[in-house]
């Protein structure tokens, strides 16, 4: 595949994504024929904030914490089925992208459950179109819950954290 065709395919896919958003569609599937035995199959879909919240969270192996590390508060503070976006103190995503809890792989998270944050402190990064966007704390408080997993996709308005 030559670079010109690759650039045209990328532009085509971007146009499909815009069409998806502009027409409030949830999925779009297209097959582009270039010739015999040469085609491009594209499926573009999006998840609403409601679907994202209802999706099962990725399972991570629990690691033993060092003795000096503070333990997270008990999860009995809110009902398990409560919508995090409706919680008082919910910090929601200002954009669509990929959430990262640490500045780079292998480094410590910006914040952890139980941390005190000040207004303007970086809570996490959302990567959108190869740009790393620092998401600041909208107010001072204590991080009560981290709703997103590191490296997970987020939609506009999706809950990220709860700060009280």
Terminus-to-terminus distance:
53 Å
Give the CATH superfamily of the largest domain.
RNA polymerase II/Efflux pump adaptor protein, barrel-sandwich hybrid domain
- Based on CA atoms alone, the radius of gyration comes out at 20 Å
Number of strands: 10
What would CATH call the architecture of the largest domain? Answer: Beta Barrel
CATH class group of the largest domain: Mainly Beta
Secondary-structure element string: HEEHEEEEEEEE
Overall shape:
elongated
> Please, how many domains?
2
Total helical elements:
2
Low-confidence stretches: 59-78
Function: This protein is a component of the acetyl coenzyme A carboxylase complex; first, biotin carboxylase catalyzes the carboxylation of the carrier protein and then the transcarboxylase transfers the carboxyl group to form malonyl-CoA.
Biased composition (Low complexity): 64-90
Domain Lipoyl-binding: 88-164
GO molecular function: acetyl-CoA carboxylase activity
Write a structural description.
This protein is an alpha+beta fold. It has two domains: 3-45, no CATH class; 49-56 and 85-163, RNA polymerase II/Efflux pump adaptor protein, barrel-sandwich hybrid domain (OB fold (Dihydrolipoamide Acetyltransferase, E2P), Beta Barrel), CATH 2.40.50.100. 16% of the residues lie in helices and 32% in strands. It has two helices and ten strands; from the N terminus they run H-E-E-H-E-E-E-E-E-E-E-E. The protein has helices spanning 3-22, 49-54, and strands spanning 27-35, 38-45, 90-92, 97-100, 116-117, 122-128, 131-136, 141-146, 153-154, 159-163. The chain has a four-stranded antiparallel beta sheet with strand order 3-10-8-5, with no helix packed on it. The protein has a four-stranded antiparallel beta sheet with strand order 7-6-4-9, with no helix packed on it. The N and C termini lie far apart (53 Å). Pathway: Lipid metabolism; fatty acid biosynthesis. One of its GO terms (molecular function) is acetyl-CoA carboxylase activity. Residues 64-90 have a biased composition (Low complexity). Residues 88-164 form the Lipoyl-binding domain. InterPro entries: AcCoA_biotinCC (IPR001249), Biotin_BS (IPR001882), Biotin_Carboxyl_Carrier/Decarb (IPR050709), Biotin_lipoyl (IPR000089), Single_hybrid_motif (IPR011053).
